[in-house]
Write a structure and sequence with these properties.
The structure holds two protein chains of two kinds. Chain A is of the alpha/beta class. Chain A has a single domain (2-219), classed as Rossmann fold (3-Layer(aba) Sandwich). Chain A has helices spanning 37-53, 68-77, 95-109, 128-136, 189-195, 205-208, 245-255; strands at 2-6, 9-11, 33-35, 56-62, 81-85, 113-117, 140-150, 153-160, 163-170, 173-177, 200-203. In chain A, the strands form two sheets. Chain A has a nine-stranded mixed sheet, with helices on both faces. Chain A is globular and about 70 Å long. Chain B is an alpha+beta fold. Chain B has three domains: 10-117, Orthogonal Bundle (Butyryl-Coa Dehydrogenase, subunit A, domain 1), CATH 1.10.540.10; 123-232, Beta Barrel (Butyryl-CoA Dehydrogenase, subunit A, domain 2), CATH 2.40.110; 236-378, Butyryl-CoA Dehydrogenase, subunit A, domain 3. Chain B has eleven helices and ten strands. Chain B has helices at 10-27, 31-37, 42-50, 69-82, 84-103, 106-117, 231-267, 279-307, 313-338, 349-359, 366-378, and strands at 123-126, 142-146, 149-160, 167-173, 181-187, 193-195, 209-220, 224-225, 269-270, 273-274. The relative contact order of chain B is 0.12. Classes of the chains: A alpha/beta, B alpha+beta. Chains A and B meet through helix 2 and helix 5 of A and helix 1 of B. The complex binds flavin-adenine dinucleotide (FAD).
Chain lengths: 259, 379
């Protein structure tokens, strides 16, 4: 089975993140880059499926030079090879443009299954799986908390508030996964050493066959018009107990719609 | 704060990233509880063993990671920043592998090293006895030759990981005098080998320290490492490397205490300002930072000499002395920075202080380090 896992490098979720005033884009330079958290679950699921079905896992990333750190980490977890789409002309691309690029590459390298994390911790759009499936003309099975493959039959548990739905589709397909699906493994030092020898193909904008005018910030379909910093945290409300503390606390919670 | 490290290769940088991630996710959440209730974190050693952290400084041909000491020690330092007892145990494990990896025959190495270096088994180091600590040559545990090999009789003391380890690198007497000590690799579970109750310690409580009692324990001849009588030489050359491990662990402790104290000093306010803005306290923090930097620079210098194949015994003793004294000072001052809260077990700095004290004692007390250094000066 030929499995492709799409991986995005994002600024460390735990660090202070800011937008750049000049173009309203996320300031990626000042923060450490890490693999988007849900993508680690996608990689783990890909590795498990590959182990169970004698498959091969390819990592697909679009991003600047720095994103090669995330590629190396994914390879050190056990993925077999990687494709890195890297081109200055892609900077500032929005989700629609990114999906166009990734779909072009996926069409060329081929796949039985594409796995993505359900959303990224930076933009949090949660649309990439749907856009890719649409562009590739294959089923999208989203929010998987469990995945089973049997021949060309694909069965997943789709996470819902009330539990899960059982969803079936046939390969080739695109799936997105949620955190509940597995426990991502750590790389090992042996994996780190092995990753050095694994093939990483770099793909430029020209290689994708897309026109430079279609991608990048200037041609993006979405635009950040303005942004404001999150207001500083307010001091908490202190309820003084003068015999009616319980009632006041309950009123406060009701006012916040917690009860 | 993430320590900004100079590393010799990209794989070393990736290794340090992996170590930090493991330490943050697997060590940090467990340490306070495990140290309080004194439980051995077997699962933690499984995880770091699987990640390949138990064989880093040994050649890949023997199943190790082939990493220079410069890199291995910084891994230890990162582990120690979250859990000193775990880092010490990793260091002692590496120490226990040294005799086999350096003086063992190829057959012995093939038999036992892959498991030890690959994270499958944990090794301990057993040199000290109740009456022979600093004066290791005074050890009395007997290894008598008989037809099938050796019969071991006697008592060893202060074994880090005693009762939990899978093998014990044992030093015992095959003849009188300082040329009469030999080194053995003893597997756990032999008839006649028992361990005492864990010592009730000031710190490092999650990892037991026990005595071992050998009551006529029979050991096959192929468990002898190196030649008969070579034991003390083996023990001391292992300790040169082991001391670097302790220096790195002590540096990690100092760094953790510094980081905690700085964080606290930026939040806590007195007399209308943050305590870090009072010069009297800011300069205390500056001295703590200088001590942590000096400790790291000193052990890295010794490590780089070792990696380059230069003599490093004197520098290893200097590093152990400087780094462990730094850890003692920095952890004590971190308690001071937190005031009354520093003295409370609700905060980690009192534990750092208790953990720092042992660093000045084991693998050669700091008096013994001065002895080693002064002998180099006099020679
Ligand atoms: C938690 C813990 C873990 C340990 N783990 C291990 C282990 O895994 N394996 C192992 O083999 N051992 C281990 N040890 C033992 C440790 O290495 C010894 O305790 C240490 O070497 C000191 O020996 P001692 O306790 O017998 O002190 P002593 O040798 O009796 O020393 C007492 C004091 O006298 C000083 N002194 C001694 N001789 C001289 C001299 N010539 N000049 C000046 N001062 C001197 C010492 O510095 C010390 O201050 C451990 C100890 C502890 C507490």
């Amino acid at each position: 089975m030929n499995i492709v896992v799409c991986v995005k490098q994002v600024p460390d979720t735990w660090a202070e993140r800011t937008l750049r005033p000049e173009d309203s884009r996320l300031d990626r330079a000042s923060v450490d880059g890490v693999i988007n958290e849900l993508d680690e679950y996608a990689i783990e699921e890909g590795l498990r499926l590959a182990e169970a079905h004698e498959g091969e896992v390819t990592i697909l990333t679009m991003g600047p030079d720095k994103a090669s750190e995330s590629i190396r980490k994914a390879l050190s977890m056990g993925a077999d090879k990687a494709v890195h789409v890297i081109d200055d002309g892609l900077a500032g691309s929005d989700a629609l443009q990114t999906s166009a690029v990734l779909a072009q590459v996926l069409g060329r390298i081929g796949f039985d299954l594409v796995i993505l994390g359900a959303e990224s911790t930076d933009a949090r759009m949660g649309v990439m799986a749907a856009m890719l499936a649409e562009r590739l003309g294959v089923p999208q099975v989203s929010l998987a908390s469990k995945v089973e493959v049997d021949g060309t039959a694909l069965r997943i548990h789709r996470q819902r508030d009330y539990g899960y739905d059982k969803v079936e589709a046939s390969l080739p397909a695109v799936i997105s996964v949620v955190e509940k699906i597995n426990e991502p493994r750590y790389p090992s030092f042996k994996g780190i050493m092995a990753a050095k020898k694994k093939p990483v193909e770099t793909v430029t904008l020209a290689d994708t066959g897309l026109d430079a005018g279609q991608v990048g910030l200037a041609a993006a379909a979405t635009e950040v018009v303005s942004f404001a910093n999150r207001p500083p945290r307010q001091a908490g409300t202190v309820v003084k107990d003068e015999g009616d503390g319980g009632t006041k606390a309950a009123e406060f919670l009701a006012g916040q719609k917690f009860i | 704060m993430t320590v900004d490290r100079m590393l010799p290769s990209r794989e070393a940088a990736d290794l340090l990233d992996l170590t930090r991630q493991l330490a943050e996710r697997e060590l940090a959440p467990r340490v306070a509880e495990a140290e309080a209730v004194e439980t051995f974190p077997a699962e933690v050693f499984k995880i770091i063993g699987a990640a390949g952290l138990l064989g880093l400084p040994y050649p890949e041909s023997l199943g190790g990671g082939g990493q220079p000491y410069e890199v291995y020690l910084q891994v230890l330092e990162e582990l120690a920043m979250r859990w000193a007892a775990v880092a010490v145990t990793v260091s002692v494990h590496s120490l226990s592998c040294f005799p086999l990896a350096t003086f063992g025959t190829p057959e012995q190495q093939e038999r036992w090293l892959p498991d030890l270096l690959g994270g499958g088994t944990l090794g301990a180091y057993s040199l000290s006895e109740p009456q022979a600590g600093s004066d290791a040559a005074a050890l009395a545990c007997q290894a008598e030759r008989d037809a099938g090999g050796y019969v071991i009789t006697g008592t060893k003391a202060w074994i880090t990981g005693g009762g939990n380890a899978d093998s014990y690198t044992l030093f015992a007497r095959t003849a009188p005098g300082s040329q009469g000590v030999s080194c053995f690799l003893v597997p756990a579970g032999l008839p006649g080998l028992t361990f005492g109750q864990p010592e009730r310690k000031m710190g490092l409580r999650a990892v037991p320290t026990t005595s071992a009692h050998y009551d006529g324990v029979r050991l096959p001849a192929d468990r002898l490492i190196g030649a008969e009588g070579q034991g003390l030489r083996i023990a001391f050359s292992a300790l040169d490397s082991g001391r670097l491990g302790i220096a790195a662990v002590a540096t990690g402790l100092a760094q953790a205490a510094l980081d905690y104290a700085v964080g606290y000093a930026k939040e806590r306010r007195t007399f209308g300002q943050r305590i870090i803005d009072h010069e009297g306290l800011a300069f205390l923090l500056a001295d703590m930072a200088a001590a942590a930097h000096a400790a790291r620079a000193t052990y890295l210098d010794a490590a780089r000499r070792r990696d380059a194949g230069r003599p490093y015994s004197e520098q290893a003793s200097v590093a152990k002395l400087v780094a462990t004294d730094a850890a003692m000072k920095v952890t004590t001052d971190a308690v001071q920075v937190l005031g009354g809260y520093g003295y409370s077990q609700e905060f980690p700095v009192e534990r750092y202080l208790r953990e720092a004290k042992i660093m000045q004692i084991f693998e050669g007390t700091n008096q013994i380090q001065r002895l080693v250094i002064s002998r180099h000066l006099a020679s």
